[in-house]
Amino acid sequence: xxxxxxxxxxxxxxxxxxxxxxxxxxxxxxxxxxxxxxxxxxxxxxxxxxxxxxxxxxxxxxxxxxxxxxxxxxxxxxxxxxxxxxxxxxxxxxxxxxxxxxxxxxxxxxxxxxxxxxxxxxxxxxxxxxxxxxxxxxxxxxxxxxxxxxxxxxxxxxxxxxxxxxxxxxxxxxxxxxxxxxxxxxxxxxxxxxxxxxxxxxxxxxxxxxxxxxxxxxxxxxxxxxxxxxxxxxxxxxxxxxxxxxxxxxxxxxxxxxxxxxxxxxxxxxxxxxxxxxxxxxxxxxxxxxxxxxxxxxxxxxxxxxxxxxxxxxxxxxxxxxxxxxxxxxxxxxxxxxxxxxx
Length: 343
Ligand code: FE
Known about the structure:
Layout: H1 2-17, E1 31-35, H2 39-53, E2 57-61, H3 64-74, E3 82-86, H4 88-96, E4 100-101, H5 106-111, E5 124-136, E6 160-161, H6 168-181, H7 183-196, H8 205-214, E7 219-223, H9 224-233, E8 239-242, E9 257-266, H10 272-282, H11 285-295, E10 298-299, H12 308-311, H13 324-339
Parallel strand pairs: 1-2, 1-3, 6-7
Antiparallel strand pairs: 3-9, 4-9, 5-7, 5-8, 5-9, 5-10
Bound molecules: fe (iii) ion (FE).
């Protein structure tokens, strides 16, 4: 306890000595980021930010759940300035739990489309993750593909592969299907997906792609970066992406389901201006291109074009339902998948 008080006193002294906060290049105690993103994806960007601004960044990596639990337990004493994680559902939960604060930033509001940030300004997307249909280029014609919903058709009987319903990616996808089609219709669709499964659901997206390549099934649904990485390693892989829900009225033409990685500033942050500077920098064109390249994700900033490796898959129209809806409807999606027998 005494050590903690001494530490707190020193921290106050450091902050006081810096007055209004350091300018570029001044020494400082720096920012602390709690991040569910893997180190190799974020460290190059943090290093670049530090080189440009002199602001040091320390980070703690863990899964989203433990990071949120830690922020809640630490409360006002938390040393974390930023929470960075994947999936709008996780960010939505962090905002609901009250561990994030609203920030006023015209830069973030210009760089991040409205559907990809919190209405209450507590979190902002930093990259887009598209969850799309993948298919065997040997056994499927794109003329047979149209929408997520159409994978319920009898023609896909014994030909569909899915990842487990326990994964938040599928919970968010089904949540947006509920928003588009209503709960009863979505439940009937998911029952048919389950009836069309070639094999029980897999534990991860890579296994879905591998099963299609191996001929166990013909179509599946995965996040694009998994296939993009696999194709980078094995250019002849006989699996390709299809952008669903691009045509038609209403639910049929609503666009590809997208989720995000994103970040918000903690309520406990003592370095709000610097934390905001980092988030604004991450939403800028330079960092956006790097972020997209590092994990083969898509930029959120509309001014940034597609990075070279992603150009081969072409452009798609994304579902512009606010990603926060996926968070709100996740509990309903989980119950629905359970009722429909999607394990
Ligand atoms: Fe992933």
